[in-house]
């Protein structure tokens, strides 16, 4: 049986499998490295594989260190809305921003770097946190004729969820591969994210259903 089960109208979006989000990283997601073998297998099934990378300039507005007196995981209001503050992570060009060493990246057709603007965060692979600035990913997928998108990666309740919801808003049939993701889960954020994804029409499945 051929490995490629999905054709040109399908894409796998691998979200932020980076050192900062894996054990030992500045913003480690529990079990973050456990998704790597599953994602490597999933990537063999898709003709179109896209990777995303958080790629923050130093002093990014989402870093608690950029706001005197503030601590990581506190919330503040910014001109574009509420913002959770994070430890410094995925600083452009740093070890933390690099992909996990065991993640197979050679099949990727595109790498989308997000959070690149110092004054606005970007959880979603499609639209930045100001909800008006596109990353260009939607246009890229549309140009390829992609109709369906599967998502895997880190973290379920932030960058994966926002990307999935925005994929639906952009008109793609959207699936999140639950066991190929891991969550931060701050104060019930995982349950809230699954509810928001379900309400947006995102479908939830496991890797053996892909």
Automatic annotation (TrEMBL):
Gene: pncA
Enzyme Commission no: 3.5.1.19
NCBIfam families (alphabetical): PRK11609.1
Name listed for the protein in its UniProt record: nicotinamidase
SUPFAM superfamilies for the chain: Isochorismatase-like hydrolases (SSF52499)
Superkingdom, taxonomy of origin: Bacteria
Gene3D superfamilies: Isochorismatase-like
Domain Isochorismatase-like: 10-204
Family annotation (InterPro entries): Isochorismatase-like_dom (IPR000868), Isochorismatase-like_sf (IPR036380), Isochorismatase_Nicotinamidase (IPR052347)
Gene Ontology terms for molecular function: nicotinamidase activity
The protein's annotated pathway: Cofactor biosynthesis; nicotinate biosynthesis; nicotinate from nicotinamide: step 1/1
UniProt-listed Pfam families: Isochorismatase
Keywords: Hydrolase, Metal-binding, Pyridine nucleotide biosynthesis
Family to which the UniProt record says this protein belongs: Belongs to the isochorismatase family.
Record CDD domains: nicotinamidase (cd01011)
